[in-house]
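Deliverable D5.2: sample structural annotation.
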Amino acid sequence: MDKMIQSPRGDVTITNDGATILKQMQVLHPAAKMLVELSKAQDVEAGDGTTSVVVIAGSLLDATAKLLVKGIHPSMIADAFQHAAEKSIEILEGMSSPLHLSDRESLLHSASTALNSKVVSQYSGILSPIAVDAVMRVIDPTSATNVDLNDIKIIKKIGGTVEDTELIEGMVFNQKTTGAGGPNKVEKAKIGLVQFCLSPPKTDMENQVVISDYAQMDRIMKEERQYILNIVKQIKKAGCNVLLIQKSILRDAVNDLALHFLAKMKIMVVKDIEREDIEFICKGLGCKPIASLDHFLPENLGHANLVEEVQTGSSKVVKITGVAYQGRTVSILVRGSNKLVLEEADRSIHDALCVIRCLVKKRALIAGGGAPEIELSLRLREFSHSLTGMEQYCFRAFADALEVIPFTLAENAGLNAISTVTELRNRHAQGEKTAGINVRKGCITNILEENVVQPLLVSTSAVVLAAETVRSIMKIDDIVNTR
């Protein structure tokens, strides 16, 4: 189920992403803060399963409370839980099936499974291929071991529906072109990215210029005009016809006079480029950032077939396509009818990208629908019979705690949780490793046939991180407040 979060300022967020919910909750208890950090760690490591990891950790903490009542020492529980987590990884790896990145169907099924629990689940058929294609464009499938998601830029624009979301091979800028009569479409573009200001210089200290007559004022205006004209002429001389200007803090990055001259020379201007976007732009367009006028040379420019301003809903974006020396970067233009849908679509696409990244990191798939957790629970309980003493109790408690995932899944699907989990346990006891809860049909089926799959890394990191957090909490015997 989804949660509606209202901030003190009145901003509303609708989501079921565990990391987003916990980030916005203002928790005060130190142990609760550890669970928030746990969710963040899962978000960084796997990007998906942020809710599951907290649910598992909560269930393990509940199990430890019962073990402590029985008189088992916290250190013994912590060590047993570590062994149980290590054994869980072995079992999960044994259940998984290997994956090749050339198997597009399996990648699409994984992305769809991640999107099916989201608010925008009805659009999973559109968003899944976008996520898969985006990741495949920024990596070399034969040698990649990780994905830098900074190479995939997500731009949000209100207007239209989520169906209008598109993957753009090239680049999109949220800013519109700066008017003043300049062009808004340029073919065979030569793109310059400047980090200096196209406006009259200022002194480093506070100053005052006292003008006593019109001639002096006219001279200042003339000097300013000549200064800017020289800069614009130098830009034109290099052959540049599209100019990207970095945002400046100290003074105007570009003034009206400069825009007027640039428009006359048919140079398209996009200003207010953020500092953090510079690296992405350089990588995507094959250009170099130009910090001074002396370095404004043809070899520092990027080349593209088309740069144009496109209307999207009520606003405009600048689209660059047909880049000559494009690096491994892509842009995704996300559309939505309102801010809430747009924000959730952005989070959902991020989760889908993270799922594909998991498969690049660890190329193995596992069944979804609560199947791995119930299988783990069963196998750990079997393994506990080979142990003796307190460790057997702890292993059994760890195994029982993992049943919380299928139990919660059945509850959320509107099924009778107890009978569903009991039936699921029986099916796994009969050797059906891939039996899981089919939410659509409301029964237990072979979940692989329904194409409900998830990356192995999501399940393994959830179990390991939850067990580590519980161990950390178990090792604490007192809280000391300092002023």
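Annotation notes: The radius of gyration is 29 Å. The chain has a mean pLDDT of 86.
The annotation will be released with the project's public dataset once the embargo ends.
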